[in-house]
Write a structure and sequence with these properties.
Layout lengths: L1 H39 L4 H14 L7 H13 L6 H22 L1
Helix pairs in contact: 1-2, 1-4
Protein name: Aldolase
Organism: Hephaestia caeni
Pfam families: ATPaseInh_sub_z (PF07345)
């Protein structure tokens, strides 16, 4: 029974680490996407930091990336930048790769 319990704890610990890493990657990705959008909107450094945090917080509204896409498309369009969902989703994918790379180098 001890071996089974040890295995179960190991799987639970791995799952927990994997979920934490996925959360950190998504948060980092959203920050990077927020910085990208802020640059497009020509925001100041302080505004860029605040906007990147707002994009990270927007992801907590619902599951998936739709809430982030809606925020970015809405804000960029309001700033007079022509963009659509597909463009934003492409940037999200690109920034996920960058976020993963950044987090892996930190480990």
């Amino acid at each position: 029974m001890t071996t089974f319990d040890d295995r179960e704890r190991a799987f639970e610990a791995k799952y927990s680490r994997d979920e934490e890493m996925a959360f950190r990657m998504t948060a980092r990705r959203n920050k990077l996407v927020g910085q990208w959008a802020a640059e497009k909107m020509k925001l100041t450094a302080e505004e860029t930091d605040a906007y990147a945090r707002a994009v990270v917080h927007a992801d907590f509204e619902e599951a998936g990336d739709d809430d982030v896409v809606r925020k970015l498309v809405g804000d960029l369009t309001a700033a007079g930048i022509e963009i659509d969902d597909a463009d934003v989703r492409a940037v999200i994918e690109e920034k996920m790769v960058e976020a993963r790379r950044q987090l892996m180098t930190e480990l």
